[in-house]
Design goal:
Blueprint: H1 2-36, E1 39-46, E2 48-50, E3 67-74, E4 77-84, E5 92-95, E6 102-104, E7 139-142, E8 146-152, E9 164-169, E10 178-180, H2 186-192, E11 197-200, E12 207-211, H3 213-225, H4 229-237, H5 239-243, H6 255-264, H7 267-279, H8 319-323, H9 337-347, H10 354-361, H11 371-393, H12 397-400, H13 404-417, H14 433-448, H15 458-469, H16 472-486, H17 495-511, H18 513-521, H19 531-535, H20 544-555, H21 563-574, H22 576-581, H23 586-595, H24 602-617, H25 625-630, H26 644-648
Parallel strand pairs: 1-5
Antiparallel strand pairs: 1-3, 2-10, 3-4, 4-7, 5-6, 8-9, 8-12, 9-10, 11-12
Helix pairs in contact: 6-7, 7-23, 9-20, 11-14, 11-16, 13-14, 14-15, 14-16, 15-16, 17-18, 17-21, 21-24
Organism: Pristionchus fissidentatus
Main location: cytoplasm
Function: Acts as a GTPase activating protein for RAB7A. Does not act on RAB4, RAB5 or RAB6.
Length: about 650
């Protein structure tokens, strides 16, 4: 036995030494090629600008960040790189038009091995130019890692706009949109086609796919061999789940893990949480759709829906229009309440009107009462706020040491206040009194509703209210009104979120069965990637001003109480071809959805969602009963209108 073990040891060592030698030789070859072959720029387009809206901006920004787009041949591959203006492309070698001659730039000593930074970014030279404030936007992506890109050309005769591209990687990463201010994207696409095969999507004309011809040929071959087996296998395994698009796979959430993971983690961490939660799936989940062999049910494969109507947004409600709905005593005319709500739904309200309008929309002020009566109510509630605020302020450090639940909630509040909307001027800087007010409002809410206390994400709802009201007590009672609408989102068992995700899936099955089936076949029909949209009402997806506009639209409960679900469906509807054509799985969908943040068009999203509502409303006699229930179709009492009864609830 011993001689054999010795022989085995010597053999393994020889094989290891051989592998090490091969790896060393490969590394030597790569390093040698880097030292001999400088990076060569085959295309360099100045005047290509990024346009990025900071999530702390109070207004959407129209500022373009100038830069240079290049396609660079490196020893390690072909790279598409964008660099902000002011960062010289040290280490690049420019190629002339026929690529037969090269024009050396600065010394190519820069390490070009990084796939994340331009060649000069990691140079060891002590003479490197200082980085611009927009350096974080620069990128370098290997063509082999590219899955597709959006190529948006402005319509001929249209107003304004510039050609734009947005690169999408195979892992779902969306790079910053690039605008060609002085020329079209033709030169870029022509040169890119030298290195990869491009194919325009047959379903979405703006989407250009980067085709891996070998992989596609293999996939087609496998598909031909097994085109019937997969469907039949699924049907034999579970005929009911296969007949429907998919069943709920959502299980119990863990409050202190799921919400932080979805709100703050990257896509990979989010996927790990999702997969862990799926393993905890309960067979007795009361919110899951159950199908029995003896149950009567209608299998809806695909409905013929009418075309979606063209919808247009209107101007915000002004102070004069708002006042026109008041009666002589200052209260609102109940006969005109629906008209007022539709005006707000169609255009939101002027920024200067929000301080008054939000108090009504959130139930702090009552529509049926006069200004004097509402002011009297306000004075009483302010005293209640001061009383509750004094309760937590009176807790000493000694008491807190024996009050674990309070200490935990206080720590969560302090942690979130320190990072909520800090890029906004209103909350920026140290020793900002507005941060103290935000802290006070959230801590006082813990006293108002100690059963719920504080959960991460609630500060997202509170900060815009405080910004608009600029008053602790007013912001607090508006926050209370808002939390009455979203309270269930933060409850420990997360039943409300589960129900909303199920309802969203149901709606998607009707309005976009193609995407619904794709998500089901890619283990993503639990809709977890929409969790962040629902729990904080798209707060992380829009600039601050757009968030305010979206929320006041949703507070009207027009044209249905669950309009938020239609906004989610409209958003996914626009991403259908990108998700399917790129063959995204769960991780890639999560990354793609997260990268859409700050790149949504709010008015476009609202018009699309309303068009879907009218499309479904026109077909309600054909729709499954549960879809009508989700959207309150045919139930006029479910549509929110200002009334004394509603305010008193």
């Amino acid at each position: 036995m011993l001689p054999y073990l010795a022989y085995k040891y010597v053999k393994d060592q020889k094989e290891k030494n051989k592998r090490d030698m091969q790896d060393s030789l490969a590394n030597m070859t790569v390093n040698l090629s880097k030292s001999i072959l400088p990076d060569m720029v085959v295309l360099r387009i100045p005047g290509v600008s990024a346009k990025l809206t900071d999530d702390g901006d109070e207004q959407p920004s129209d500022e373009y960040i100038p830069g240079t787009l290049a396609i660079v041949e490196k020893a390690t591959g072909i790279f598409i790189e964008w660099t902000p203006q002011g960062e010289d492309e040290c280490g690049w070698v420019l190629a002339d038009d026929d690529s037969a001659h090269t024009i050396p730039a600065l010394s190519p000593n820069a390490d070009s091995s990084s796939s994340l930074l331009p060649p000069h970014a990691s140079s060891a030279s002590s003479h490197a130019a200082p980085l611009s404030p927009h350096s974080r936007l620069r990128f370098s992506v290997d063509v082999n890692d590219l899955s597709s890109f959006k190529n948006v050309e402005p319509k001929k005769g249209g107003k304004g706009g510039h050609p734009c591209i947005r690169l999408i990687a195979k892992d779902g990463t969306n790079y910053v949109p690039l605008y060609f201010l002085t020329q079209s994207t033709k030169d870029f696409i022509d040169v890119l086609q030298r290195y990869c095969t491009l194919r325009r999507s047959a379903r979405e004309h703006q989407l250009v796919l980067v085709v891996d011809e070998k992989a596609e040929a293999l996939a087609q071959s496998l598909s031909t061999l097994d085109q019937n087996g997969d469907m039949m296998g699924r049907f034999m395994h579970n005929p009911y789940a296969t007949a429907m698009t998919g069943l709920s796979k959502i299980t119990t959430f863990v409050q202190d893990q799921v919400i932080p993971a979805i709100l703050d983690s990257d896509a990979v961490s989010q996927e790990e949480k999702i997969r862990a939660m799926r393993e905890l799936r309960s067979e007795t989940d009361d919110t899951r759709l159950k199908i029995s062999r003896d149950a009567d049910f209608e299998v809806v494969t695909q409905l013929e829906l009418p075309p979606r109507p063209d919808i247009y947004r209107e101007s915000p409600v002004t102070a004069s229009v708002w006042s026109s709905f008041k009666q002589s005593d200052g209260s609102f005319d109940p006969a005109k309440s629906h008209h007022l709500m539709m005006n707000v739904f169609r255009g939101g309200v002027d920024a200067d009107l929000r301080k008054e309008a939000w108090k009504y929309l959130l139930g702090y002020y009552e529509w049926s009462k006069t200004p004097a009566e509402n002011e009297k109510k306000r004075a009483k509630l302010e005293k209640d706020y001061v009383r509750m605020k004094g309760q937590w302020q009176s807790i000493s450090d000694d008491q807190e040491s024996r009050f674990a639940k309070y200490a935990v909630r206080k720590g969560l509040v302090e942690k979130d206040v320190a990072r909520t909307d800090r890029t906004m001027k209103f909350f920026a800087g140290d020793d900002n009194p507005n941060l103290v007010m935000l802290h006070n409002v959230l801590m006082t809410y813990c006293m108002y509703d100690f059963d719920l206390g504080y959960v991460q994400g609630m500060s997202d709802f509170c900060s815009p209210l405080l910004y608009v009201m600029n008053n602790e007590s007013d912001a607090f009672w508006c926050f209370v009104g808002f939390m009455e609408r979203v309270h269930a989102n933060f409850e420990k068992d997360q039943t409300a979120i589960k129900v909303q995700l199920n309802q969203l899936r149901d709606i998607l099955m009707i309005v976009n069965p193609k995407l619904a089936n794709y998500l089901e076949s890619h283990d993503s029909d639990d809709m977890y990637f929409c969790f962040r949209w629902l729990i904080v009402w798209f707060k992380r997806e829009f600039a601050f001003e757009d968030t305010c506009k979206l929320w006041e639209v949703l507070w009207t409960c027009q044209p249905c109480p669950n309009f938020l679900l239609l906004i989610c469906a409209a958003t996914l509807d626009r991403q259908t071809e990108t998700i399917i054509e790129n063959k995204f799985g769960l991780t890639e969908i999560l990354k793609h959805v997260n990268d859409l943040s700050m790149h949504h068009d709010l008015d476009e999203m609202l018009t699309s969602a309303e068009a879907i509502f009218h499309q479904l409303s026109a077909s309600q006699d054909k729709l499954p009963m549960h879809i009508c229930e989700h959207l309150a179709l045919g139930d006029k009492s479910a549509v929110g209108t200002p009334s004394a009864d509603e305010d008193d609830e």
